[in-house]
């Protein structure tokens, strides 16, 4: 694929990682892109780079537009290695370039690469004239690293948004309308849920800034570039940042001999009887990263485990560890399970929910050995009661 001109003088020159299947511990079945952007003006600017093994691919695209040695500025919006991994090689082919980054960006680059480049450290709101265009830098700390910032080109009404609004998609298409809303929204939700979810407060601050900018295009560091669906994704991001959910329930469980599964399905029946849409995920067959997008939109989270060695099954414990790191808020939790004699597993699930600050209005449903018909009826009744509080 050649360089893609997004607007006159503004090019996508990134790399496509068709083979990536795991990123940050979550599955990426569609692969990903590492987006870099080249601006050709009186000054030549490269905004971000690519993972180190895609440097040659990026360089070939840059060479279609300009001699890489003529790059005047290399903007590093984010130090994470999937974006900064090719910075040392870029600086070898463009030794006269200034590295433009945030104060924390400089610290991170020095720690990662131990190179004393010609740094230009920019404050939030600072502008850099490059000819007929101006670059405006806005710090967005903890969306999702302390060094993060975005670059805005007011003359083009384009926001180079770093990891915000990203999706993991490897595609020959460069724009959101190339694959359609359903695909790009699905991957944006998965990306947000697995990476950005803990930083809702910071995302809201960034969205407040974005709301003041005339926008025709948002070009993130991963995935497709937003142009057609801008008016749809911006309010969706706001809902995610505010931890707003739908009247949906998510039932997550693992099972040893089938008892916890039977309880899970009975709970589902009770919720559905009360008119609540329910998604059921078994941790034996669903990767935790594929479950988190369901957490993103579900008000009620029901988690079930048998008791093993006086505690949760390791799969349930691992899921809760992952979830605690993402810190979803404003959820209603419900813990359930089965046990042989101790029964601590489901109690530990409830304690984890309470530690995350969730509302847990009902007692633990903990059934010894295999549930009988009366106990399954009590599970259905618990599902109906839970529906009344979500």
Can you give a write-up of this model?
This protein is an alpha/beta fold and 390 residues long. It has 2 domains: 4-241, Ribonuclease Z/Hydroxyacylglutathione hydrolase-like (Metallo-beta-lactamase, Chain A, 4-Layer Sandwich); 249-387, Rossmann fold. The protein contains 13 helices and 21 strands. A 7-stranded mixed β-sheet has the order 1-2-7-8-9-10-11. The protein has a 5-stranded mixed β-sheet with strand order 12-13-14-15-16, with no helix packed on it. Helix 9 links the parallel strand 17 and strand 18 (277-282). Helix 7 runs antiparallel to helix 8 (230-241). It is elongated. It starts with a strand and ends with a helix. The model has no long low-confidence stretch (mean pLDDT 96).
Radius of gyration using CA atoms only: 24 Å
Quick one: CATH superfamily of the largest domain? Ribonuclease Z/Hydroxyacylglutathione hydrolase-like
Structural class, judged by helices and strands?
A: alpha/beta
- Topology, number of strands: 21
Main sheet?
7 strands, mixed
CATH class of the largest domain: Alpha Beta
Mean pLDDT: 96
Number of helices: 13
**What is the global morphology?**
elongated
Unreliable segments of 5+ consecutive residues: none
Strand order in the sheet with the most strands? 1-2-7-8-9-10-11
Whole-number total of structural domains = 2
